[in-house]
Amino acid sequence: MKAKNFTRRKFVGTVSASTLGAVAIGSFPAFGATKTSNKLAILGGNPVRQNKSWPDWPYVDKNVMDSIEKTTQSGIWCRIQAKDGTVPTFEKEYARMMGVTRCVAVGSGTQALHTAVEALGLGPGDEVITSPYTDPGTIAAILSARALPVLADIDRYSFQVDPDDVERKITKNTKAIMPVHMMGQPADLDRFLQIARKYNLFLIEDACQAHFAKFRGKMLGSVGDIGCFSHQSSKVISCGEGGSIISNNAELMEQCYTVQNHGTSKFGRTETIGPKYRMNEFEGAILLGQLPTAMERHALRNKNAKYLTSKIKDIPGITPQKLYDGTEEGSFYLYTMNYNKEEYNGIPREKYLKALAAEGVGLSPYIKNGLHREPWVDNIMGRKEYQQMYGKSRLEEFKQDMDCPVCDLVCDEEMIMLWASGPLLGTTADMDDVINALAKVYENRDQLKSI
Ligand SMILES: *Cc1c(COP(=O)(O)O)cnc(C)c1O
Known about the structure:
Elements: H1 9-13, H2 62-74, H3 86-98, E1 102-106, H4 109-119, E2 127-130, H5 136-144, E3 148-151, H6 163-168, E4 174-178, H7 189-199, E5 202-206, E6 214-215, E7 218-219, E8 226-230, E9 243-247, H8 250-260, H9 281-312, E10 318-320, E11 327-329, E12 334-339, H10 349-358, H11 376-381, H12 384-390, H13 392-400, H14 405-414, E13 415-419, H15 428-443
Helix pairs in contact: 2-9, 3-9, 4-5, 4-8, 9-15, 12-13
The site of pyridoxal-5'-phosphate (PLP) has 14 residues, from helix 4 and helix 5.
């Protein structure tokens, strides 16, 4: 095996000085010293960013490698073998970092959410309101409990589920709301806390993208009744596949442990319905190896994101994600923006992204379809158990009220996303490449017509 260079050097060493430097956004036309560099790369001009790579992801260092080796040699490969194994130790340490009393680790973010739903006693006949603009794991957790995921539309600029639409969709069977902290930024928690209180609903935070993000002094995941995280490879604390649940409610967390342990409590009594979702010790070892330096990376992502936003906000037609009052830090799992084609002679997003990619900055349109446009809706409509539990008229109403036009607009035309777990660990010169590419394409937007 070719040894990786696990020092921090690689994060700064891969990038040479930007040949162009940061453009003075706001004083257009400022880009490019020569005529040739004003030609879009897709039309044969010089790309803004060439022969440079982004920092590696997932994060690995010597500490992580040592932690895996230690676990391998210890023979403690399953969490129930030792109280001081990697999984129980990760749970203690993560809970401490999150400012809560308890954490239970499981095999994925989806498993974390499903465990939380089951531990709260939600199931057949119950409705949970969440966002269509999310990972399929969000609704899989609700469906696995045979509860009904009711989807509310999102806000066009924050990409978060819209509290007004959530409130409109509450029925007598609604038991919980599950806001998703998209892109690792807080959903509108002031409103969701108020709605949960007013209608006596559980507030489950899907914080699967939101490790270390802060809202009014609290870590995301610790604001509502229970919070769930994903540790899948792409996420900012990752072990391939993994998940965790946090809360200050001791009884609820005990129930989470029991549910994810095939319904068997820590005292060994098999008490309830539960899958076996235990995290294994190798996953725990990788996570534990990352924690000591995780806050450094978190701070660097926040610093780079702040810099990006300070420049990008002045580029017409590109709007960095809207943040709600009370947002203090983001996880910056993703750095997202809204693309408004009106500022680009009506050029559709796909052409715009092609031009950017040619400049050496690849952004993604991210989620193709909101979950309201996926076939599971018809699947559950046709299922006997859903028909029995919810009744035909409720299911028909559920389907009819499924439209999420803002989510459609964001998916089809407006979202542009920089995956950020690794890239936002880059240098200022890397950030300048992103800014310069966006600025160059804007300045030369008239050329987009001839692509
Ligand atoms: C990643 C993710 C999940 C699911 O987590 P897995 O670990 O992939 O199961 C759920 N919700 C959101 C918002 C996510 O980003």
